[in-house]
Amino acid sequence: MSAVELDLDLCVEDANRLLADSDAEARVDWAFATLPGTQVLTSSFGAQAAVMLHLVSARRPETPVVLIDTGYLFPETYRFVDELTARLHLNLRVYAPRESAAWQEARYGRQWEQGPAGLEAYLERNKVEPLRRAFTELRVGTWFSGLRRVQSRSRAEIPYLERRDGRYKLSPLADWTDRDVGAYLKRHALPYHPLWERGYVSIGDWHSTRTLEEAGSEEATRFGGIKRECGIHGLPG
Prior knowledge:
Blueprint (H helix, E strand, L loop, with lengths): L11 H8 L4 H11 L3 E5 L7 H8 L6 E5 L6 H14 L2 E5 L5 H8 L6 H24 L1 E5 L16 E4 L2 E4 L7 H10 L24 H4 L22
Parallel strand pairs: 1-2, 1-4, 2-3, 4-6
Antiparallel strand pairs: 5-6
């Protein structure tokens, strides 16, 4: 599929049918050529994040890469951010909560330990609001995401392209398997997150991330099994 085969006059449903016949590289190329507004990539710099970071930055190095720094990332994650930013020449944009981690704990306690309501408040304050602010400040019209259907039940039906509230979200790796990811990393000599070798398959805040062995299932590796998604991917597109 070439970049000219789709246009915004097509409905998203039609676009998804055409994108399904493309590879990930062609999907990204089409998005850059077709989709509107500031185009950004969001990344948590998680286990397999180097794939999307390379896929997008190799085509358009100036693309803003938005990282939400909750103040609770693993030390290895911060070092991984530095490594990939230097190696891939990323245009990194870091957004953080309006209140520091220490200030939040003094005011509200350890909200992630306060049941579902506390966890929701924590995620809204530390992840959702900073990303919403980033999208507003950067005037984002198109959002690249690394979501894949095999990652969890909550992601099993994600489309390649979504449109909500006038913003587009493209998940060019939606149909990729773990083997596809591994092959791409090997082909381009890219690293997994340093914690991958220690059994972490999904990596977020240190206080609410467990190894696969500890959790028993990939669904339960985040937030003590209370929920899988942090709320970021529920933002209006």
